Amino acid sequence: MFENLSGKLAGVFERLRGRGTLNETDVAEALREVRLALLEADVALPVVKDFIAAVREQAMSAQVMESVTPGQQVIKIVHDALIAQLGGAGAVPLNLNAPAPVPVLMVGLQGSGKTTTAGKLGLRLASRERKRVLLASLDTQRPAAQLQLEQLAKQAGVPSLPIVAGETPIAIANRAISTARREGFDVVILDTAGRLSINQELMDEVRAVRDATHPAETLLVVDAMTGQDAVNTARAFNEAVGISGIVMTRMDGDARGGAALSMRAVTGAPIKLVGVGEKLDALEEFHPERVAGRILGMGDVVGLVERAQETIEREEAEQLAAKLAKGRFDLEDYAKQLRQITRMGSLSSILGMLPGAGKLAAQLDESKLDGKLLRRQEAIILSMTPEERRRPEIIKASRKRRIAAGSGVTVADVNRLLKQFDDLSTMMKRVNKLGQKGLMRHGLAALLPGRRQSWH
After folding, report:
1. Out of 1.20.1250.20, 1.10.3720.10, 1.20.120.140, 1.10.10.10, which CATH number does the structure's domain 3-86 have?
2. Bridging pattern class, strands 245-249 and 271-275
3. Helical (H) or strand (E) element with 439
4. Average pLDDT of every residue of the chain
5. Burial degree of 183 (CB within 10 A; 0-12, 13-18, 19+)
6. Which ranges of 217-287 would DSSP assign to H, the alpha helix?
C-alpha cells in the first residue's frame, strides 16, 4: 500500500534535496506535484487542500528558505503534516476502561471484512491482553453469517454465543451481555449486520443495538481497497451512529492509500487497527508516524523488529547464531531462514519497512516473485536428501536433475538456489573472519562478492 504515492513523492523530494537553495517558485512547484500525487492516491479533495495549505505556510517561512538544508526542512514539514493527517504521533489504543463485560460494537458494510475482523480482534485481545472474550453475531440478514463467526471463534480459541434461531439483533445483543456478565467475561464483541450499501434500515438497526448495549467502542470496519467509497462509508456511519475508531482491512493490498489519509479529517475518529493479511493474527495497531515514514521512504524499522520478535523462534535463532559463530551453515539452516521470512509476511511488505528500499519492493512486486520464490526455494531444498542438505558440494548433474524433477522446477532453478546459498555462505564466513571490530573498521563493503580483503 502507498507504493505509488511513495514513489511520486520520492521523485519530488530528490529534486528538492539536489538544490542548495530554494525559492518560492521551487516550493510552489514541489507542492503542486505533491497535491497531484495525493489526489491520484485517492485522498479526499478537501483534505488535500488543507494539507497543502498547512505545508505551504511552514515551507515558505524565512527560517526554512534561509536554512542550510532547505530541501530537508521541507521534507520534514511534509513528514510532520502526514503524521498529523493520519492522527498524530503514537497508536491510539482500544478503550476498554469500563466495567466488565465491556461491549465492543463492530459496524460496517457487507464485504468490508467485518466478521473476520471480529474474529481477529477476539484472538488479539485474548492472546495479547489476556482478556476473556465472547464473540456474538447479530447478523440475521446474511445466510450463515452467525455460523461464520462461530467457526472463526473456534479457530481463534475464543468462545462464541450459542446460536438461537429466530432471535432479533437486539435480543441477541442482550443475551450476549447477560451471558458475559453471568460467566465472567471481560469483553463482548458484537458483530452487527452489514448491507451492500448504506440505507436507513441498516442505520436504524445499528443505532438500536448501540442504544441497548452502550458500547465502550464502536469500531467501523472499512476496506482500504475501496478508496473514496471507504471515506463516504465512514462519513455516513459517523453521522448516523457515531464511531469511536476505525479498523482498515486489506492494508497489505495494492490500494492507493488515500482512504487512510482522509479518515481522521472526515470523521474525527482515529484509525486504531489495521488488517495486514488473511490469517487470524494479521491485525496490528496503527502507528501514524511509522506509516508516514514508509510513505516518504524512511522505512519502519521499529515495526520490522516487532514483527520479527513475534514470528521468529528465539531458540531456533540462537541455535543458528551458534552455528554461524563456528562457521557452519547448511541448506537445512537456509530452509529454516526461508520459513521464518515467510512467517513475517510478504517480501515486498518487509522491504517496504526498510529505509530507502521502496524501489526494491516495487520491483519485487512487478516481478511477481515474492512469496512464490521463497516457497519454490524451500521446495527445492525439501527435495534433497539429508546428506545433500548438509553437504551441497556433492550435488552434481544427476542429483540436480532428480531434485528439479522432485520439486517441479528446472535444473537452472536448482543451480540458482545453490549459487545464492554459496554467496550467502561466503558472506557468513567473511563475517566470522572479520569479527565485530573488523566489520566496523572495513564496513559492509568487505562482505561483497569479489572484494579482496586482508583479514589478518
Report:
1. 1.20.120.140
2. parallel
3. helix 411-442
4. 79
5. exposed
6. 228-241, 258-267
Give the H/E segment covering residue 201.
Answer: helix 200-213
pLDDT at 266: 87
Instruction: Please tell me whether residue 271 adopts helix, strand or coil conformation.
Output: strand
Cβ-based burial of 33 (10 A; exposed 0-12, middle 13-18, buried ≥19): middle
User: If we measure between CA atoms, which residue out of 351, 297, 335, 330 comes closest to residue 428?
Assistant: 330
Residue type at 260 in one-letter notation: A
Q: What sign does the dihedral 384-386-389-392 (CA atoms) show?
A: negative
CATH code of domain 102-298: 3.40.50.300
C-alpha 279/C-alpha 156 separation (Å) is 10
Q: Tell me the whole-structure pTM to 2 decimals.
A: 0.66
Domain ranges within the chain, ordered by starting residue: 3-86, 102-298, 304-447
* CATH 1.10.260.30 assigned to 304-447: yes
What's the pLDDT tens digit per position in 58-115?
A: 887 767 666 656 677 778 888 888 888 888 878 888 999 899 899 999 999 988 889 9
- pLDDT score at 433: 58
User: Taking Cα atoms as reference points, which of 254, 292, 454, 260 lies closest to residue 370?
Assistant: 254
| pLDDT tens-digit map of 359-390 | 444 544 544 445 567 778 888 999 999 999 88
- Dist. CA 105–CA 313, nearest whole Å: 35
Per DSSP, 284 falls in state E
Cα–Cα distance measured from residue 28 to residue 26, given in angstroms and rounded to the nearest whole number: 6
What is the β-pairing status of strands 283-285 and 271-275? antiparallel
The answer to whether residues 176 and 137 touch, using CB atoms and an 8 Å cutoff, is no
Could you give the CA distance from residue 63 to residue 58 in angstroms, rounded to a whole number?
Answer: 9
Is the CB of residue 73 less than 8 Å from the CB of residue 81? Answer: no
* Greater model confidence, 216 or 367: 216
299 vs 447, more confident: 299
